[in-house]
């Protein structure tokens, strides 16, 4: 499977972005995947040095600049800048489990009927949330659907909808979206 991992970021906290990059560098998947960081109108610009852990592991990684601010513009740029069969959108504050890419890639290669999917989105072990904020976490893409595979196809939102963070998207679907908005 040909996979491009896309991190869209706008003026990130570099220490947090480095955690996300470090998690990608620790992936158990063979380093055949590529990483694209879309620097979305950051001030200052994202430095090339953040890619060093990936390059040290043999993962092809690069940064492109998208001058139009907004995650939609950044993700559209990621689609046009990549060519893999699948894209994996990772937020700049996501720390993937070490086997996330391996398991997701394996699952994607076995499912020709799926256009997009995701996984659990949990808070880091060090993050403590006030009790009053807990009901709002799903709106911040923090969700744990459990171990069961949840699928669906509908014009309505449902529990099968992967959030934008940690979402695998088949290239055909991404390009159909591009064509539809053009």
Shape: globular
The number of domains is 1
**In this structure, how is the largest beta sheet organized?**
6 strands, mixed
What's the mean pLDDT score?
A: 87
Ends distance: 28 Å
Q: Describe the oligomeric state of these chains in a short phrase.
A: single chain
CATH superfamily: Spore Coat Polysaccharide Biosynthesis Protein SpsA, Chain A
How is the secondary structure organized here?
Blueprint: E1 3-9, H1 14-25, E2 34-40, H2 52-57, E3 60-66, H3 71-81, E4 86-91, H4 100-110, E5 116-117, E6 167-170, H5 171-181
Parallel strand pairs: 1-2, 1-4, 2-3
Antiparallel strand pairs: 4-6, 5-6
Structure in a nutshell:
By secondary structure, the chain is α/β, with parallel strands linked by helices.
Account of the protein in words:
The chain is an alpha/beta fold. It has one domain: Spore Coat Polysaccharide Biosynthesis Protein SpsA, Chain A (Alpha-Beta Complex). The protein is about 30% helix and about 20% strand. It is built from five helices and six strands, in the order E-H-E-H-E-H-E-H-E-E-H. It has helices at about 15-25, 50-55, 70-80, 100-110, 170-180; strands spanning about 5-10, 35-40, 60-65, 85-90, 115, 165-170. It has a six-stranded mixed sheet, sandwiched between helices. The radius of gyration is 16 Å and the shape is globular. The protein starts with a strand and ends with a helix. The model has no long low-confidence stretch (mean pLDDT about 85).
